[in-house]
Amino acid sequence: MTADPTTTHPALAATDPELAALVGAEERLQGETLRLIPSENYVSAAVLEAAGTVLQNKYSEGYPGRRYYEGQQVIDQVERLAVGRAKDLFGVDHANVQPYSGSPANLAVYLAFAQPGDTVMGMALPMGGHLTHGWGVSATGTWFRGVQYGVRQDTGLIDFDQVRDLALKERPKVIFCGGTALPRTIDFAAFAEIAEEAGAVLVADIAHIAGLVAGGAHPSPVPYADVVSTTTHKTLRGPRGAMLMCREEHAKAIDKAVFPGLQGGPHNQTTAAIAVALHEAAQPSFQDYARAVVANAQALAEELLARGFDLVSGGTDNHLILMDLTGKDVPGKVAAKALDRAGIVVNYNTVPYDPRKPFDPSGVRIGTPSLTSRGLTTEHMGAVADWIDRGVRAAQKGDEDALALIRAEVAALMAAHPAPGIPA
Known about the structure:
(6S)-5,6,7,8-tetrahydrofolate binds at residues 125, 129-131, 248. The protein is of the alpha/beta class.
C-alpha cells in the first residue's frame, strides 16, 4: 500500500487535491501491479527528486559556455556533468543530452546527415523496428524515402544478406539498426560493414538496450556506429529524455541539428535527472542489475516455452520477449487487456508477418526491466509465466473470476518487493 499523497505531496495536495489524488492512484497502480512492458521501468527516488527541482525554472538555449540567456553558471555545470558521465559510461567522443525524447533525437540525426527526399533505411515497423526509422506514417517516412529490411520468417532473425543487398541497391544516406521488438543481440559489426560498403552513416538506436550496454550485458555499438541514439529511461532507469552520442567528427553536425535545428531550450530538470541516472549506471551494482534483467528474461522465456507459448525467434538474448498468440487462439489485444485486469501490464504488439491489423495484432510484448528493479529473480519467473498462462486461458474463456484471483496473487508478491521511488 502506498502512502497518502497529502503526506507525500503536501503542496500538490493543498493546491490541487484532484491531481494529487490521481498521482496517488498511479503510485498505487505501479506499486500493486506486475509491470512487464519492456520500455518501462522504475526510476530511483534520487532521479525523481532531480526531475522536480528548481532547475525547471531556467531557460537555457544553447550549450554550456555558449548560451543565449544569462544566469547559466549553475546550469552549465549540470549539463557538463551529464555530458561527462555519458561519455565516460559509454566510451564515446561526444554526447548531447538535450533531446527531449527518442523521436526528436532521431529526427536530429536525419537533419544532420540527410536532405528531404533522400533514401534512408531501417527495420520495418511490423518486423520490430521503430516509427522513426523511415516508416511511412512517421515524418521520417514522409520527408525521406524510407526502405525497410526485416527478419526471416523461419527464424525471426535479421537476414544480413537481405540487408546488404538492399543497402547496395538503394544506397541510403543513413542506416538505422535497432528497434522496439527485437529479442536478440544486435550484430553492430555486421551492420557497420554493410554501411561502409554502401557509403551510409550507421546509426545504432539503442533506446531499449542502453542499460544493458552500460551494464555490460549487451555488446556496445560504439566501436562500429557513427552515431548512437538512445532514450534515457527503459533499461537505463533514467527520466523520460534522450541522448545522441557520436564520433568527434560528427559532433558539430549533431549539436547544430538538436539546437537550433529542432529544439529551443533544454529541459534542465531532465538533464539533471539524466546525470543522476548515469551516475547510478556507473556503479558496480548496475552491472548486476543488467545481468539480472537478461537472466530473468531468459528464465521467463524458458518457462513460457514450457507452457506451449510461441516466442518470436524462439527466445531472447536481452530484456524483451515477443509472444505470438496465434496458437493460443486469442488475439494479442484481447490477451493484453485481460492480463491488465489481472494486474499484469503488457502491450499488444505485431509479430513478424502478422496477418492481423496493427491495432488488433497477434502478439504480446513483455520484458523484465521493471520486475528486476523490484528485486524479482529467476526463482520468480515460473510464477510469472504461470500467471500469464492462466491469464491468457482466462481471456479465451472470458473468466473474470480467474483474472481477479491472479490480480490478488500478483498484489501479494508486489507487496513483498516494494518499487523503487514509490512512497511506502
